[in-house]
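Case study 2.
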Amino acid sequence: MGACLGVCSLLSCASCLCGSAPCLLCGCCPSTKNSTITRLSFTLFLFLGTLVSIIMIIPGVEAELHKLPGFCEGGNSLLGVEGKVSCQSFLGHKSVYRMCFATAAFFFLFGLLMICVRSSKDPRAAIQNGFWFFKFLILIGITVGAFYIPDGQFTSVWFYFGVVGAFLFILIQLILLIDFAHSWNQIWLRNADEGNSKCWYAALFIFTIIFYAISIAGVVLLYVYYTKPDGCTENKVLISLNLIFCVVVSVVSILPRVQDAQPHSGLLQASIITLYTMFVTWSSLANVPNKYCNPTLLIRAEGNSTTVVTAGGQPTQWWDAPSIVGLVIFILCTFFISVRSSDHAQVNKMMLTEESPAMLGDSIPSPDGGVHQAYDNEEDGVSYNYTFFHFCLLLASLYIMMTLTNWYRPDQRHHELTSPWTAVWVKISSSWVGLLLYLWTLVAPLMFPNRDFN
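Prediction:
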């Protein structure tokens, strides 16, 4: 009886996977917008590809696979049958490149397909919001095909695609971070005006102090571990420049004229930007290809292996600390893109996530018969740009590829991974762009007083 119920449940789930987004919403969830469920579902595909990539690059996985009887070439046999699978071919940094190539190609395909979709009345909107089982099959097919791409120059060329895509995704992260910082400050100041102002102002003060304290501690540690008294001039210059820039934006944020033009600007936003800038600086210095100035440098990875050593010659986990923090930020930002529109119209315009006319005035419909489901909120206009959303996920795929491989460049001739200066300058320049963006949000109302920057 239980088996029969299980089969029926499986068939029901299969029919949902072939249907639209409303069917994917479980009964325990509240009624939700169709557009939100769709974005979360595509994000789940990206997270699934990320999880597979992480498993492929974990040290020791290849050794465990060789223990499976009759699976890997050269592994244990099963009833005298030798394995036929080359386990080394789908593990290590090359497999991460192929897996992320597959997810990037998947989102690129749907980005092209969804160009100029204006509302859910467009037949292509049904493809965007449904047919999840077939989308999953397409992703699997692209992934299998990616592992048949000949080595040649693929990883070397794809590395530069990854650098450009990761740089663009870092800029998207910075835009979201600046928007988040301004929204956080505005909400707490609004709450302070409505009542119990001492508690809200105390909370703002405490978080600001914490963020600045962590940032100062980070600067000290960067000077201690990534500089030497008799060298490492580049590292000293990069740390000092970003420290000076962070002090400048912090001072500008509390200037009287800036406060008059933007009463909600303050040190909380500046402290968040400062903390993120210090993280990007740390991540940049972790890629400096100089063993003397970079104690965390991973210097060699033979062939497709996931075993590496540090500059001191000791075995280490493949991911360094900046990569782990970057992975967490990637997950938060990608989830943020999927579920939220900004409180600021200009950010929505920049990110192409303006709410549709239907969303501006409609309330959430009541569940029909107690059944919770997603409802179509895009009949009069899409709530986000489908193509731009897929483009963001494409960039996220490239960013996670670079993060999981520590931004190291594969060297086909020597079968090594090397840390190039390219990664250092891409990261450090992204921090400068982020500081300029934040500075622009502060001074723009002064430069263009006739425009509305609320």
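The chain is about 60% helix and 5% strand.
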